[in-house]
Amino acid sequence: MEDQKIRVAITHGDTNGIGYEVILKAFEDPQMLELCTPIVYGSPKVAAYHCKAMGLQTNFSIINKAEDARDGRVNMLTVFDEEVKVDFGQSSEEADKAAFCAIERALADREAGLVDVLVAAPHSAAVQKKALHALQKYQETIGETLSDLLPIHICEGLRVAMVTGQLPLKEVAKTISKERITEKAHVLFRSLKRDFRISTPRVALLALNPKEGNNEEWGVEEKEMMIPAIQQLESEDSQAFGPYAADEFFGQSMYDHFDAVLAMYHDQATIPFCTIAHDDSVLLVGGLTFVYTAPNQDCAYAVAGKGQADAMTMRHAIYTAVDVLRNRLNYDEPLKSPLPKLYHEKRDDSEKARFTVRPKDQFKKEPRAPRGESAPNSTEETAK
Prior knowledge:
Elements: E1 6-11, H1 19-26, H2 32-35, E2 36-42, H3 44-54, E3 61-63, E4 75-78, H4 93-111, E5 117-120, H5 125-140, E6 150-155, E7 158-162, H6 169-175, H7 178-194, E8 202-206, H8 220-235, E9 239-244, H9 246-251, E10 260-263, H10 266-276, E11 282-286, E12 291-295, H11 312-336, H12 350-354, H13 360-365, H14 379-383
Parallel strand pairs: 1-2, 1-5, 2-4, 3-4, 5-12, 7-10, 8-9, 8-10
Antiparallel strand pairs: 6-7, 6-11, 11-12
Helix pairs in contact: 4-5, 7-8
């Protein structure tokens, strides 16, 4: 992979939003083309309209299939020929259809081995839901299921995932179980090891309920589901800790001591993450057999067509996709032909014992431990 450019499929997102703007701005810097070969799945006509409306200077070459993509240029792959009306700042079924059409085509090309990673430009929540179903269909063709997928919000060393998705709060407690928690935790641990090359990741689990009564006891879900799940993970030699009350956990910056956080529901994860994270945050879908990332931003209808959108998070979505692919290749290579184990290794549990101290005094009395280190020679450092 070091000898050839990584082919990055970039879906154009909502045609009435900032998708084309952040894509084309991301490749204004010629050094980006030294990192990868971008293939933008969309419409050259719509792209030209966005360029003219905002005075964007990025040049692109029109192609009809991924095999025609060339290194050193922005390749614009024609996904559909019909006219698409561009109405900046307005949500429409036509724009949603065009966004999902690009995702379907990119997934088909990935299945055919024509592209290496996928990066999705901002699109609507409706398209996101359809995209997850498309990913489910893709996974089912190789014997996987949607339950294996885990969106992970990333900003530098902070990584936050959630057990349940965008559910009403009254449905969250019904959905959570010991099995579901451990299943999501397993996906998160695998991603930390393989995608980020953290050899012994530490994961904190957030409690569903606040503590109750004068004795500050946990609720039913923590006692019957979360604590048993954590105990099971510990028995499997996974560094899982908690449960922690979310307000105290984020308010006291306890997340600095962990490589990732597993929240129980959507707002518990996204509200503190968006408060803490910078403009370069990224979404990685863990559990997929290929790399799928997206800028952690919405369609930004309020600034669509005004030339004000910042392309930093799109660049970081591309950096992350390229870095994760390289990390996976490096992680998998030694496992192809493992050497036989010639002796029994005696386990040292001293490190595990140190981190099982519960809970607040540990963080108040000890200096902060560094977050997990990512792989050396990251794409972002190369770009700089």
